[in-house]
Amino acid sequence: MSSSPYPARQLLLLSNSTLHPGGYLEYAQGYIKDFLGRSAVKKVLFVPFALRDHQGYTDKVKAALGPWGFQVEGLHDFADKCQAVNSAQAIFIGGGNTFQLLKGLYDFQVLEAIRSRVLDHGIPYMGSSAGTNVSTKSIHTTNDMPIVFPPSFEALNLVPFNINPHYLDTDPNSTHKGETREERIRQYQQVPGVPPVVALREGSLLEVTGDHAILKGQLEALLFRGDAEPRSYPTGTDFGFLFQELKAQ
């Protein structure tokens, strides 16, 4: 018997939706088809709240996933949004503005419904960029501007740590003297009681199954914890040790 409290947890957490020189989700096509195919998913419920144009965003996702054999429905089209979540085969939350996205999840009262559907019922959850941010413990490590104010920064908590998508390394040849991404995350880590942060570079993703979180893509990821120096981990690393450590706290 699995020791995981959520043995059926299935997550695909992308750092970004578009990777040069490809189109929308193109670089992740193989990962997405394998991930959804393992659960025989035919229909995906898309949550478009990270952008204001819900229909236009949903149409973009339909154009990408449709040719791969997946039907897409936009959550904005349903009067009873919790019922739509509760009957979904899989959920995909796309990128955009993380604050706007989280506010939408609270405003439409679907945060707990999504969390239960994913953790208690094991349906696949896919996120990219802002959709990856809200899958974590909180949105404190998003790169976005607070254009709206959600009632809380606490998010879906599908994993017990935070993620920084779109992580940018410091350019040693740059004359810019402002704060680097590393400095900003380390400032966050100085706050007492905050969770570790996994920094994902472009084209990187975490595939989570139960209490295993495998780093995929071509680039290493950084792990920030407390006052320790950030540590780099290669593709193929299982960040499942974070589940075990945080469970023990």
Number of helices: 8
Radius of gyration: 17 Å
What share of the residues lie within helices? 25-40%
Order of helices and strands: EHEHEHEHHEHEHEEEEEH
Number of strands: 11
Strand order of the largest sheet: 3-2-4-5-1-8-9
EC number: 3.4.13.21
Function: Hydrolyzes dipeptides containing N-terminal aspartate residues.
Family: Belongs to the peptidase S51 family.
Protein name: dipeptidase E
Q: What would you say this structure looks like, in words?
A:
This protein is an alpha/beta fold. It has one domain (10-175, 197-222, 233-243): Class I glutamine amidotransferase (GATase) domain (Rossmann fold, 3-Layer(aba) Sandwich). The protein is 27% helix and 18% strand. The protein is built from eight helices and eleven strands. It has helices at 29-37, 54-65, 81-86, 98-107, 111-119, 130-133, 181-189, 240-248, and strands spanning 10-14, 43-47, 71-74, 91-93, 125-128, 162-164, 197-199, 205-209, 212-216, 221-224, 231-233. The strands form two sheets. It has a seven-stranded mixed β-sheet with strand order 3-2-4-5-1-8-9, sandwiched between helices. A four-stranded mixed β-sheet has the order 6-7-10-11. 40% of the residues are buried. The mean pLDDT is 94.
